[in-house]
Each structure stands twice: as structure tokens, then as C-alpha cells.
Specification:
A five-stranded mixed β-barrel has the order 2-4-5-7-6. The protein has nine helices and 29 strands. Helices cover 15% and strands 38% of the residues. Among the domains are: 98 residues, OB fold (Dihydrolipoamide Acetyltransferase, E2P) (Beta Barrel); 103 residues, Nucleic acid-binding proteins (OB fold (Dihydrolipoamide Acetyltransferase, E2P)), CATH 2.40.50; 139 residues, OB fold (Dihydrolipoamide Acetyltransferase, E2P) (Beta Barrel), CATH 2.40.50. Helix 1 packs parallel to helix 3. With 572 residues, the protein is mainly beta.
């Protein structure tokens, strides 16, 4: 059927003029980014207008098929053909009018890329069809593209769309089959729709149970696995948790068809989520893990991932028990290892903590193998975690170490807030009241004024929030200043409302201001009486303390002088 025949057919059955039809053709070609010819556009228009244009000229039908790589947000009337790559779970929900709805999806791959196809209500039944399996071919008709919640473009089959399983009018040889290929963990990141990985299990968390907002119960568990390029967290939800039943730390495993997402605790990192299509299996052949051996401890501040290093144990904290958010009580042990360049903290948990507490001693020279580097955001310093696969060995080697840090001091009790003390006299963790002037301007490059999106319910950063009901985030602020009382200086941190009260501005106002210099100068030199908790900052060689502010008041220095004079005169 030629272009002229299409036009005549449409004119006869709709009454449209040739110019009106040409305008529709131009609009359709623009909508589809110029990826089809006039004949292809006419065929789509005819179908939209319910004009019967049956044809045996398959080249036109094939031509109107878009490639996944060419699909963008806002496209309509999409025709797409590809192979099923992954099949996701069907979810049931209640609409605002009280009716029940269903939504399901699958991943389609046509060789140019992969895209999620979303189905609604009765259309979701096809996901349960016995022939709806990986690598089967499907054709999508009259779909539209929009941005998904994960930030990727996805295709929706709406009211007038259609999905055809195993269409008979295409050449299957033109659509490459989906093959399983494994990627290095370091490759997990933005732009990746699906990932299959192999690695060694280095951590398995206990199962956490929770209650959803609708009253139903859910379960979640995660494992951490590593290869020679990095580590990642793998999250299992509900029934998928059974896929790792019987697995243990040290196992070599392969996991297919994982869904990458931004890590909830660190927006700079990605993790992967197991779905109904994912398969988990043990790998018989050992997976070779090559970890970096770091010569000097100060170099650890520039490293990530898993490392090995040598040093001398210069301090050991007492073994203690802590309560996790899950209410689980676990043992934890921290110790410091040093060489002549620097020192670093190592933390062990659970059985590792108990075992190490019985074998470690001060001045012991050791080789730490396969420990994980992590960043302590509070001090902006790297620490290490002793994993299930980690090892510590005594070595007969002379290593010079920097001066050991002491972790026990005598000082006021933890509830000591009755008396104002000098900053110089703070020599233990605890609650104190101090006075001092703000003696240093804020350094914005060191995050001494930090604004973030927080959950209004729990006040945590949005990325760390575990609240079931998500609310519109609010701006919150952290402010760090240096207080000096003439005897010594201390870094004091003001959180949330206290930070806003000190600046005299709300966090959202500070975030919108263009004149940060003016804001910084408004607190310089202020004289404050501050109540809060002193915490040992033991990352450095000297025993310095930080101060977390609980409450404060600004003092009029002239008034304080007058009060002192009156107090002196009362003794005359």
C-alpha cells in the first residue's frame, strides 16, 4: 500500500483534507523524534483514526518499531518489540475510590538497550502466562513513555495499549537473545537497569521484621559481597529471603538479575535489590579476591574498599554491648593500630569482637588482612571494620608507632551540669556547662555550616530515614563553631533548632540566601553559655574533645561584668 493509497483511504473514511493529514504526519514524526518515514507515520495515524489499512507490506510495520535506545519521556503511540529479560512482582493496591488495582512490570531488551514495561490491572495477567518467560518475544503497541520513580524512562501500556506475546509477523532472528553476563561490582552505578554479579559473602545481617502502614508485616535481610573491584550490599525482601537460606560468610556466590538503586545510607553509593527473577547460587570454583596491601597507615585515609596493613596496637577499648535499631544486643570492640605515620581505629562486632577481646594486647605488632575501609562522617576520617573474612596475625617485625592514645580519664560524672567549668578542665566524656566566645569564622569548605533534607517525623537525613510514612522533607541545619574561654578552645556543634536560634534564621532561609558572608559574620564574637556533652575526639594524637550542644544562651558581656562587680561588692 503506497503513501497515496494511505492518504486516499484516510480521506474517504474521515473527511480530512490532504493538508490536515500532512499536518498529522508532521506532528507524528516530530513526536517520534523523526525516527519513522511518512509511510510509517501514516500507518500509525490510520490506526489511531480507526481506519482499516490492512497490509502485507511488513517493512512499514517493522519501520514503526522504535528501538529502546531512542525512547524518551513524553513519547506516545510507541510500538516496541523485544525479548523478556526480567519479570517483576505484581502489586495490589487500593485506589482513592475504593476499587482495587494491580500493577506489574517486566524488563524488555531489544539489543539496543533494556527498558521497564509497566502493565496495569487486567493486563498484568499476561505476566503469569506459562509462555511469558525469559527470552520470549513480545510486541508492545500504542504505549507511552514517562519517567519512573527510579529516574529511568519506562514504557506504560495504558487503556488503549496492547501487548502481544510471541507475535507471528516478525523475524525472531533479528532480535538478539538475552544472555547472562556478570559484571564487576565497581560497575554498579547510575544508568544500569539490571546487574548479575559474583563474589564472596563478607557479611550477613539478621532478618528484620517490620509493620507496614497498612498493618501488614514485612521482612528484610541483606548480605554484603565483594570481588576484587569492590563491595556492595544485596537486599532481600520478604519471600526472597529464603533464597539465601543456608548461606554463610565466606561462601562464593553468583546472583543474577539484580536491580541497582541508590544506597539509603549513602547517596554516593549504589546497592542491589533481589527481585522475583533473581537467582542465587553457590559457586564451586573459588573466586579470587585481590586486596590491596597498604604500606603506611596514613595512606588508608585515601583508600576505599578492602585493604590489608601492618601496625602496632596502641589502645584497646573495653568490650561492650550495644543495642541496634532492631533491638538486637551485640558485642562491639574497638582498638587502635598505629605506625610512625598515623593511627586508625578498627571496630569488630558480634563473635569477632568477643574473640578479639581475648587475644589482643597493647604493643602487639600485627598484620590486619582484608578489613573494610569506611568513612566516619562525624570526624571526616577513615576507619576500618573487621569483617567475617578478616584476619589478624602476630608478626615478628619492628614497627615504630606514634604515641598511644589513652581512652580512660578521671573527670566529672556524666550528669555533671551543676557548675560552669573551664574548657581547659574538660578531661573526660560527660555533660558540662561552659562559657566562651566564638573566635573563628565558619569555613564553608569544611562543612562547618551544613544544611540537609530531613524527615519531619524522625529528624534524620532523608537518606537515613526508616519511617514507614514518608512526608515532605524539611531543611535542617548543623553548625560548628570554635568556643574559647581564655583557658582553651573547643569545637561546639549546634544541631537543628539550636543552630537556627544561634544564627537567627531558619534553615530554609539560609539555604536560599545569596550572601553567606553576612550570615557568617553575624555570629562572630558572640559570647555564649553552653550546656551539652563533651566527647573525646580520639582520632588525633592529643586528647582533644568536641562538644555537642544541648542548650545555650547568649550572654551580654557588659551585663556579666556588672553582675561580677555586684557579687564582689557583696563581700565588702
Amino acid at each position: 500500500m503506497t503513501t497515496e493509497t494511505y492518504i486516499n483511504k484516510i480521506m474517504d473514511e474521515t473527511g480530512l483534507t490532504p493538508k490536515e493529514i500532512q499536518d498529522l504526519v508532521n506532528e507524528k514524526k516530530a513526536e517520534l523524534k523523526g525516527l519513522i518515514s511518512d509511510e510509517g507515520a501514516l500507518l500509525i495515524i490510520a490506526k489511531e483514526l480507526m481506519v482499516d489499512v490492512k497490509t502485507q507490506e511488513k517493512e512499514y510495520l517493522n519501520e514503526i518499531d522504535l528501538k529502546v535506545k531512542d525512547i524518551s519521556v513524553g513519547m506516545k503511540n510507541i510500538t516496541l518489540t523485544g525479548r523478556i529479560s526480567e519479570i517483576y512482582k505484581i502489586f495490589t493496591f487500593n485506589r482513592s475510590d475504593g476499587t482495587e488495582g494491580k500493577v506489574g512490570s517486566f524488563l524488555l531488551n531489544d539489543g539496543s538497550g533494556a527498558i521497564k514495561v509497566v502493565l496495569w490491572d487486567d493486563d498484568t495477567k499476561i505476566l503469569k502466562h506459562e509462555n511469558f518467560i525469559k527470552n520470549e518475544v513480545v510486541r508492545i503497541l500504542n504505549a507511552y513513555a514517562k519517567k519512573g520513580r527510579d529516574g529511568f524512562v519506562e514504557v506504560h501500556i495504558g487503556k488503549f495499549g496492547k501487548i502481544i506475546l510471541s507475535p507471528d509477523d516478525i523475524d525472531y532472528n533479528l532480535i538478539p537473545k538475552v544472555t547472562e553476563s556478570y559484571i564487576n561490582i565497581e560497575k554498579i552505578g547510575p544508568g544500569l537497569r539490571s546487574a548479575s554479579i559474583k563474589g564472596k559473602v563478607i557479611r550477613i545481617t539478621p532478618i528484620s521484621e517490620f509493620r507496614r502502614s497498612d498493618g501488614s508485616e514485612g521482612r528484610v535481610r541483606s548480605i554484603s559481597i565483594m570481588d576484587s573491584t569492590g563491595t556492595t550490599r544485596v537486599v532481600f525482601w520478604n519471600e526472597d529471603i529464603d533464597k539465601i537460606k543456608g548461606f554463610k560468610v565466606g561462601d562464593n556466590i553468583a546472583i543474577t538479575q539484580l536491580t541497582p538503586r541508590v544506597n539509603n545510607l549513602n547517596s554516593d553509593k549504589y546497592e542491589v535489590v533481589v527481585n522475583s527473577s533473581s537467582k542465587v547460587s553457590k559457586v564451586k570454583d573459588p573466586i579470587e579476591i585481590k586486596t590491596e596491601i597498604v604500606n603506611n597507615i596514613d595512606e588508608l585515609q585515601k583508600k576505599d574498599n578492602i585493604v590489608s596493613f601492618k601496625g602496632v596496637i596502641t589502645s584497646i577499648d573495653d568490650l561492650r554491648e550495644v543495642n541496634l535499631k532492631s533491638s538486637e544486643k551485640v558485642a562491639v570492640l574497638s582498638f587502635q593500630v598505629s605506625d610512625e605515620t598515623d593511627s586508625i581505629r578498627i571496630t569488630a562486632w558480634r563473635e569477632n569482637a568477643i574473640k578479639l577481646s581475648k587475644s589482643l594486647h597493647i604493643n602487639q605488632t600485627v598484620l590486619l588482612k582484608d578489613v573494610k575501609i569506611r568513612n566516619n562522617e562525624r570526624f571526616n576520617r577513615k576507619e576500618t571494620t573487621f569483617l567475617g573474612i578478616s584476619d589478624i596475625r602476630n608478626i615478628d617485625e619492628e614497627i615504630k608507632a606514634i604515641k598511644p592514645k589513652n581512652s580512660k580519664f578521671v573527670g566529672p560524672s556524666s550528669n555533671s551540669t551543676d557548675k560552669i567549668i573551664t574548657i581547659e578542665s574538660i578531661n573526660s566524656d560527660g555533660f558540662f556547662e561552659i562559657k566562651g566566645n566564638i573566635v573563628k569564622e565558619l569555613d564553608l569548605n569544611k562543612n562547618e555550616l551544613f544544611i540537609y533534607d530531613a524527615c519531619p517525623t524522625c529528624s534524620r537525613k532523608v537518606i537515613n530515614c526508616n519511617c514507614e510514612v514518608k512526608k515532605e522533607p524539611e531543611k535542617r541545619m548543623i553548625l560548628k563553631v570554635i568556643l574559647d574561654d581564655g583557658t582553651a578552645s573547643i569545637r561546639a556543634t549546634f544541631f537543628g533548632d539550636n543552630a537556627e536560634r544561634l544564627l537567627g534564621m531558619k534553615a530554609y532561609e539560609v539555604a536560599q540566601t545569596m550572601d553567606m558572608e553576612k550570615i557568617i559574620k553575624r555570629i562572630a564574637g558572640k559570647y555564649l553559655k553552653v550546656r551539652g556533652k563533651a566527647i573525646l575526639n580520639d582520632f588525633y594524637e592529643t586528647n582533644t574533645y568536641d562538644f555537642n550542644v544541648i542548650d545555650f544562651e547568649e550572654i551580654n558581656s557588659n551585663q556579666e561584668v556588672n553582675d561580677l562587680l555586684q557579687e564582689i561588692q557583696s563581700f565588702d
